[in-house]
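Next comes the chain:
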Amino acid sequence: MGIFTKDIKTMDDLLIHGLQDIYYAEQQITKALPKMIDKATNRDLVTGLKNHLEETNKQIERLQKVFEKLGKEPRGAQCPAIDGIIREADETAGEIEDKAVLDAAIVANAQAVEHYEICRYGTLIAWAEELGHDEIVRFLTTNLNEEKAANTKLNTVALRKGVNAKASSSSAA
């Protein structure tokens, strides 16, 4: 077994590890979002990212309640996946000079984060249901629904609010 799985022997252990993973990920996201907000120029994108930062803080609070209900101390476990997604977003943003193209990249990078979270929360809900931890399912489901809504809003900003169109017609070639 790998170094991340040495203490995982049961499904309950796997659930706790998954919760620690997403707890860490949400905390890293609260550090990454302000950087994205600072770089974004599209007003709708900035507003959406600010709103999602507030949501993310509430998601962390819900995860703390999940740990409490399971009788565990809330703590994160380093997540190489989210670290890599955030690192890639930082590197990409650092390479783009055109602000319109940068906004399109920020949307794409934010969606990569959302898709990771949607995947994790979906799995955690399935495991919690299977293990009979009904008392935590609603917290996780609320977080999942917020992540799905954030992804939909990013799609709207990219497609209907013109971020992609502006980036594709940008004069900087």
In short: The longest helix spans residues 99-130. The CA atoms of residues 121 and 144 lie 6 Å apart. The chain has a mean pLDDT of 92. Helices lie at 11-39, 43-69, 80-95, 99-130, 134-159, 163-168.
